């Protein structure tokens, strides 16, 4: 049978666009399907901060950071904690290949397409454990100049060129609900054509059905993302041993990120690996101007804020801001806490807190140097301070007693004891006042300032929270923010989807988050940040090239 398309790609997010771009560059004919309106082209990546995990980059070397592929892989394996029973075989293989790519061809490949990076490399997921444990040993989080939209640009450009040349057809408002199979092979897709909708990017769109559709193709690529917006599904698959997720969850992804593509592939015979592995953030705050349902923003913290549980107790070491996201989340859920708190002062607020996302960083997203320089001017109001002025999640007071009263008023409880809060802050301040101290967070914060970027723009000089020169005090209520699915469709190193018996399911490929960013779980149990966009890039590139060569 002659097909009008060589490949059907389901999902027009970053992974789907990269796969499509590689196929178009090889002259293949592609049908790209997406349930959302045209405004949603690029999916979740458009909303991202644009951070990429790069290893031994020129940006790192200019800052005196000594990195290597060997060190990065050791960090990855220490964080992933892959099982030895064979269940992580493909995830580990993808991890090894990805680290090699991050230390080798990724930067030059993107640079050749016009992508550039902010020169100050950030240090995410610092870990705080022993040398072979979780965390990045050195800064590796490279923020793309232009954030998420700039990561998408070269692949959108290739899509437009392919459309002009008649190689690609894009059908928006086409929701795939099932894969069609013939004699054990995936041979196409079917679903619903949804009613036209002019919803803006990220805004929930209509699910009114106009008619069914069906498409045959020799190859289908699932690029539909994870399950982050399907809160009932998130709760159902969250590990029981980690304690229940709270009733109130924020979404870090738009409503359409519902796991439907993974479910359709499973129904067609695909193996879904490690469904219970997820990467949600404990540092979410509700968006004061939400775009999608339960819209939340993640705070990207420096290391100085005190992190307290819902009862006002400090979290144990090394669960400090920016050190171990998943460890902190599981500590909170296993103890039954539905929220937590950052306690800080105005100096720390202005220096250390950032907000994740393209729309929260107009200077970086707009590539506006003048606006960017305003962040570091004395007295300037940065994005976080502006957000704090509009958000009810930020409480401010001049004394610990007043702060406790505001925290309790926000939650409608009396869980924060004012005397205990005052004692906690005073004990921490006494450690700072020594100039040395035994408090591990105080020590870690001082150590962070040895890194030139942290000292210049990311970590406040050590000081007492109760010093009025740095006031007033702030407390920020933090909620769980759903984000990434670490498990997914099991794939081999060409992106071919596997069946539960480990054999290839003919005709089906998967990329990006739908594939657990490679192999059904490239991250294992924990991620190192900058590896989600990078995983979409790598799986899309690898799978697109494998399909083009086949």
From TrEMBL:
Keywords recorded for this protein, A-Z: Flavoprotein, Oxidoreductase
Record bears the keyword Cell membrane: no
A matching Pfam family: FAD_binding_2
Flavoprotein recorded as keyword: yes
Domain of life: Bacteria
Residue span, FAD-dependent oxidoreductase 2 FAD-binding domain: 6-533
The name this protein goes by in its record: FAD-binding dehydrogenase
